[in-house]
Amino acid sequence: MIANVSAIHHFTVGCTPADLPALLEFYTRVVGLQQGYRPDLRNPGYWLYAGGHAIVHLNALLRETPVRDGGALDHVALQAHGLLSTRQALRDANVTFDEAPLKGTHLHQVFVEDPLGLRIELNFDLEAEGLLGCA
């Protein structure tokens, strides 16, 4: 074993400077992350936080907006809380989303797409939310 990996630390969304405003709005308004400290790096961008940890880095390192084909990365999954309020907030904001209960588990998945087409999976633990059999 080379490394003892225990969790995803963060993921970086590469974009152009012009893509930054829409991405910042999506990840703060739709996903609910908070903009926070970012070191003085070579390219413009933002670090977006959940629970005091920067989990999404927006990095304007590209000259052209990437093609919306997703490449080899299918989606990124984030642990989330507040399924019922998330559904309502997405509806109120006219954000398209899909849902899928994960059979054989307590997880309920909600999928949204960021402005560049990256699928974001929000995972809700129905047992922790008191929604087993109700979702």
Concise synopsis of the structure shown:
Residues 7-125 form the VOC domain. The chain is of the alpha/beta class.
Key words describing this protein structure:
alpha/beta; 4-stranded mixed beta sheet; 135 residues; VOC_core; globular
Q: Report the order of strands and helices.
A: EHEEEEHEEE
Major sheet strand order: 1-4-3-2
Please report the distance between the alpha carbons of the first and last residues: 40 Å
Helix- and strand-based class?
alpha/beta
Largest sheet: 4 strands, mixed
Mean pLDDT: 89
- The CATH class designation is Alpha Beta
Strand coverage percent: 25-35%
Rg calc: 16 Å
State the CATH topology: 2,3-Dihydroxybiphenyl 1,2-Dioxygenase, domain 1
In one word, what is the shape?
globular
CATH superfamily: 2,3-Dihydroxybiphenyl 1,2-Dioxygenase, domain 1
* Unreliable parts: none
Secondary-structure arrangement, i.e. CATH architecture: Roll
* Total separate domains: 1
Blueprint (SSEs and pairs):
Layout: E1 11-14, H1 20-30, E2 34-36, E3 45-50, E4 53-59, E5 75-80, H2 83-92, E6 98-101, E7 107-113, E8 119-125
Parallel strand pairs: 1-4, 5-8
Antiparallel strand pairs: 2-3, 3-4, 6-7, 7-8
Domain VOC: 7-125
Protein name: VOC family protein
Organism: Variovorax rhizosphaerae
Written account of the structure:
This protein has 135 residues and is of the alpha/beta class. The protein has a single domain, classed as 2,3-Dihydroxybiphenyl 1,2-Dioxygenase, domain 1 (Roll), CATH 3.10.180. The chain is built from 2 helices and 8 strands. The chain has helices at 20-30, 83-92, and strands at residues 11-14, 34-36, 45-50, 53-59, 75-80, 98-101, 107-113, 119-125. It has a 4-stranded mixed sheet with strand order 1-4-3-2, covered by helices on one side. Strands 5-8-7-6 form a 4-stranded mixed sheet, with no helix packed on it. The chain is globular, with a radius of gyration of 16 Å. The N and C termini lie far apart (40 Å). The mean pLDDT is 89.
